Structure formats: C-alpha cells, structure tokens
Amino acid sequence: MRVTGAFALIDSLKRHGVKHIFGYPGGAILPIYDEVYRAVDRGDIQHILVRHEQGAAHAADGYARATGEVGVCFATSGPGATNLVTGIATAHMDSIPMVVITGQVPRPAIGSDAFQETDIYGITLPIVKHSYVVREPADMARIIAEAFYIASTGRPGPVLVDIPKDVGTEEFDYKPVAPGSIKLTGYRPTIKGNPRQIPQALKLIRQAKRPLLYVGGGTISAGAHAELLELAELFKIPVTTTLMGKGAFDENHSLAVGMLGMHGTAYANFAVSECDLLIAVGARFDDRVTGKLDEFASRAKVIHIDIDPAEVGKNRTPEVPIVGSVKPVLAALLRLAQEKDIHPQTQPWLDRIGRWRQDYPLVVPYPDEKLSPQEVIVELSLQAPDAYYTTDVGQHQMWSAQFLKNAPRHWISSAGLGTMGYGLPAAMGVKVALPDQQVICISGDASFQMNLQELATLAQYGISVKTVIVNNFWQGMVRQWQQAFYNERYSQSSMATGMPDFALLAQAFGVKGMVIRERSELKDAIAEMLAHDGPVLLDAHVTKDENCYPMVAPGKTNSQMLGLPELHKLERAAELIYCSSCGAKNTSNNTFCPECGSKL
User: Among this protein's residues, is 53 annotated catalytic?
Assistant: First the structure.
C-alpha cells in the first residue's frame, strides 16, 4: 500500500514494540507528529510531551535502564536536535539502548544553512553507536529495524535516525520489515566466549586464595544476575560493583562488599588492593574505579569478561581475556566448574574482609540539630526498600550508592558522563514504563535546577514520581573538592543566593510540595510523600558542610582513602599484611607467617 514516510516510521516503531515516545514537536518534524496524532488517537502509542528535549533523552534513557528495552525519543531539527546531545552522550557512556529520531530540513535545503538546520548526524558521531540520515522513504522500515537491532545487541547504545521533512511527507509503496529479520554484514557481536579461554579462567579461580569479583553494568545489560550469584557462592568469592553495576548482586548478601572506587566502601577498596585474582565482569576499568591505574589491583592476576573487544585490555592487560556476553560466558564457566572438585580456600580472605568491614563501616552522622544527608537516604531505604531509584550527580549520588541496597535495574544513575539534571526526567521515564512500581528520584539542590521544568510533565500526565532534594545549598561535590584541594576557595559553588522555594515551585507546577528542616520531621514526611497519590517534591534541608567519605584523592591508590580513622594509617599504606592461610596479621618484613608457617 502507498503510505508516507511518517506513517512508515510510526508503523515500524509499533512493530518493534514501542508503546511510549518522549518528545517535543517543531517545524521539521511536524509531518511525523501529524502521524503521531493518529497513532495516539488509535491508542497505538502514548506520546509524553516533555518541556525540554534533554528531558526527552533522559526519560528514554531511564525507560531503557529500568526495562532493558529500547527507549525512544523525538526532537525537531536545529536546537531541538542539539538539545538532545547531552542525553545521547549520557546513554552512550553508560551503554544504554536508545533510538533517537530527529527531524531535518527538506532534502533540497540540506547544506544551504536553512532555518533550524544543523548537521546532527555529524555532531553526534562520537557519541552514538550508529547513525542514519533517511534519504529515501522506501528505506524507512529497514533503517528503523536496523536501528533497533544495533541499539539492543552487542554492547548496547544509542542510535540516531535523522529524517528530512520531505521524507516524512513523500508517498511510496510500503513493505514492512519484521523485527529480528535484519542481518548486517560485518556486524556480528561475539556472544559466546572463546572455549579455550574458559578453562584458563577456571584454573585461576580454583587456585586463587584472595579472589574478587569486580562487576560492572555489562552484567546488568546481559541479565546475568543468577549466574553471578551462583559463581560467587560456588567459589565463595566476595563481590564488589561499580556505580553502573549496582544491583547486579544482592547487596545484602554476605559476599557483597559494596561499591569500589573514588567513593566506594573502604573494605571494597582494600579488597581490590590486596586481592590475588581480579575477575572483571562487564566492567571497563574506569578511572573513577581504578584511581592510580598502574597500582590498581597490582598484586592480582586479571580475568576480564566483556562483550566489547575494545574494552578488553584497553586500560589493564588481563591474563585471561574473554570477549563475549556476560551471561553465556558465566554459564559456560559454571558448566565446566561442575565437572571439577570445588574446594574454596577463601575463608581467611573473607574473614579479613570482615575485619575491614568492622573497622571501616559506612557511618551515618547525627548532628545535634540539622539533618545529615545520609539520614535522609537511609530513611528512604527503610520505607521504600523495593523502589526504583534515580539520582542526579554529586554527593547525594555517592551517598545513595553507598547506603541504598538495590535490586537489578532498580538503580538508575548517570555514571560515565556524570550528568546533572538527569534524575527527574529519568525517573519520569521509569514511571511511564512501570506505572505500578514505586519510583523515587534523589536529587541535589544544584542538579535539580537543571531540568526542573519536567515537573510540568509529571503534573500533565499524573506521573507519580517522588522527588527528594538533599538540599545543602551548595554544589556539594564541587564544594568538597574546593575544601580539600583548593584551600577552601569556594569559587562559584554556593547556590544559596537565588535558590527558589522548591515546595512553592512544585505547587506552581501542580505538584505536591513539602519541606523539612529537622530530624523529627523526616520519618513522617517520607511516609506522607510515599502515601500521596501523585507526584511529590520533598525539599530536605540538610547540614551544609557534610563531606562524602571515603574518598580516593586524584593520583592516589584505592587503599589511600581520605576520611578514614588515623588509627589505621599503617594498614592503609600496605605496611601490614594478613596471612592468606590463617588470617594472622604480620609485618611485611616476614617471609613466613609466624603463626602457621605459610609463605607470605
């Protein structure tokens, strides 16, 4: 049948299971929005009208992270398209599957500096997995099918599809392309690991006395939570996660040691500094994790499992590199392990980590009058333990990572790009995808002001997101760095002057607004917020000078953390070690353990 390019686009999206689109109309994309009108009228698709295109990208991103499905957003040409760039880069850095549709000036006008013309294809080349300009409407169905396939397979990522205005209006003989029918020459992601590498990995795991599983976002993308748990329990291996890997492993499990890296737990950072085998699973050795790279896990052999061959060996050369999807690789490893006698020898190592856990616990301060930021997050975790949490970026993000215990895909945060303004629109996307689930955005007073206009979207559609602002009247992490490394020169980091009354602001948008200033108000306020049927903004005024610790300073190793008790400086400097056989503490000058005689 003869249809327009716009019809082919919407029909192709529907065939690929798209139920929600986040977007904002404009001149070049109007033919597509005319077709959106019909699709919405038929009940085929729900369109969520955001108040800024960046909000559309972050909402599609949050939608994808929570569901594992491809998120979709629309914007027009020129400023509409460029407003998506930060959201596209956010998704690219964190490997999130998205299909981004942009309008473009008509084909004859391309290259003429027409009104609202920008080369969004060229602008976004470094921050997409792939991109297209649709030159012919007959190519629409194939391109959309390819875009979904590329975005969701291998290492996921955003794919841009730029559509000139006249492509949307031109008629042609339409032939739909079925999802999953696409085969791209030259694009064949490696799913199964090399079978010769699996036995090598198993050999190192069986020999290790101080192994550590270092788990990243690739584990969540692959849905490998069950395999990870089985591997950890089978060999009694402690598990640490990256910011992107939070939720891949039950954080209440006795083998969980929390997040590692710049603001990770002390016991996770000590463990990675002292392990003799590091098993990197869907992680990329990011600088916020490794600290001083050449001393990261310097005592360890490395097994690196990742679906992206470009990541394996990029920052750290592994003894056993395995390119493949985490789930089938771990499954193959477990199958081979079942054929062997398993005798874990990690109990002294686990006991040692347990002592670190006791010596360096995460601490919730209770100042005399003011609320501490950590108290707010802990109370949220107590009252809403199963919620989907989004965050913005800064101190509140790190405290949330430290104190929240999340299920798979329940932790949604901008990790690689560190995008302020991400939390609220991402939460909107999560709630649209999962309307029956509790969704909470934890934000900071500075981050929140970057995309606060999306309160209007929450109000328009009745999207029941609960937002908690951990308000210390500062750009908190900037202030902390200025205090620690810039002699307390607080240059342009105070947010006190000009800060709005957030509760009144929410009410102006039609959202319930609340404010608390005292500890005595906290518990009841959170209960009231969670019980309200609709969106809520809770402004929690907290201590202004609280710092986020532990902290690995730039250029330091993970064992050299700020904010730990002075009592343990010797151990932090690795001047004391433990016997891997009996767990006794010994000076590093000894060759043999004086307790059991084992070689150190």
Answer: yes
